[in-house]
Amino acid sequence: MTLLKHPNDSVISTQIFRGILVPSVAQIFARHPVYDNIFCRLPSASFARMSRVCRDVREATMDFATRAYNIDRKLRRYFSDPLDFRALMSRTGLIISGSFALQFFDRSFYPESDLDLYVWSGESAPEVGRWLEMEGYTYKPSPTQRTTVDAHMKALANSEDVEDEWDDVYGAIHALFSFEKVIRNIHGLEDTRKIQVIVPGQLHNSPLQTVLTFHSTCVMNVITYDAAYALYPYATFELSKSLVVTEDCSERTESALQKYAARGFRLVYPSFELAENNPPDFFIDEIQRRVADKHSWRIPLQVDGLPEPLNRGKGRYRIPIEWQIETHYDTYRIDCLGGSSI
Question: Which one, out of 70, 90, 264, 317, has a CA that is 20 to 30 A from the CA of 329?
């Protein structure tokens, strides 16, 4: 588990010491029922820092993390076989973002949330759609969509005047497909699981570039088949702050922002009281960023039982992405530059 630290922290020695704990304290971190009770009460950022105390505590945090950050258990809410779904992710380059990824890092649960899946291109959308239908989900086309994902993507491919859509919640997209499955919960009541399959805008090099067009930084977290990445972890999980990086003022965007405000995030808008109207330094503005850099939080996921990716070494799903936050008149925005990858 990659350590989480303040953006301005100096380089910290990677040496971890054993034996600095007095025996009575060391015993606490030798019994997982005891340290589980401690770690589960810590904010995500504080928990990540615990692994820097000493080797004994680090071993305890790593043990806790294998259970607290169990992606298969989280995915089981949507799929009967999470490993098979992650094999699909590996095969197609599919990534997860939105509120599901935020809940994974924050160890929280929003019962009303959906699962947002981002494909690399329209070519893999039909395969993902067929997999979901085999899992028991039903495709719910909009009034302007064809009756199958395959047919709709073929229609888009054959059209000469198709433009990307701007979705207030999902950013610049080429297409969005909705799937639903009705299940009965433990109380015998019907509950609907909802999944969106999102095809990035045609000018985007990867799903990550679409994620970087989201309304604010707290939802800029992604999960691949083998790791989870939080792009602004210190602001999001330590300070519960989210920088608004959209110029869109529509009612739907404002509703999405207020949803996260209700979940405890303080929204940070441009303020002329700030020097040169720059965002606070914990949003790491005007610095070229890349996935898994020192400002990110990366959690490796268990891959036992997963097949090797068919595309490993070919670079098919490794399109470079670098970005930075810029002040643009009276708004903040994220500029994608190219140069790194998930």
Answer: 264
For the chain, the structural domain boundaries read 26-68, 71-336
Q: Quick: pLDDT tens for 94-132.
A: 999 999 999 999 999 888 889 999 998 778 899 999 999
Q: What pLDDT shows up at residue 17?
A: 46
Asked whether the whole model's pTM tops 0.90, one would answer no
Print the SS3 string covering the chain. CCCCCCCCCCCCCCCCCCCCCCHHHHHHCCCHHHHHHHHCCCCHHHHHHHCCCCHHHHHHHHHHHHHHCCHHHHHCCCCCCHHHHHHHHHHHCCEEECHHHHHHHHCCCCCCCCEEEECCCCCCHHHHHHHHHHCCCEECCCCCCCCCHHHHHHHHHHCCCCCCEEECCCEEEEEEEEEEEEEECCCCCEEEEEEEEEEECCCCCCHHHHHCCCCEHHHCEEECCCEEEECCHHHHHHCCEEEECCCCCCHHHHHHHHHHHHCCCEEECCCCCCHHHCCCHHHCCCCCECCCCCCCEEEECCCCCCCCCCCCCCCCCCCCCCEEEEEECCEEEEEECCCCCC
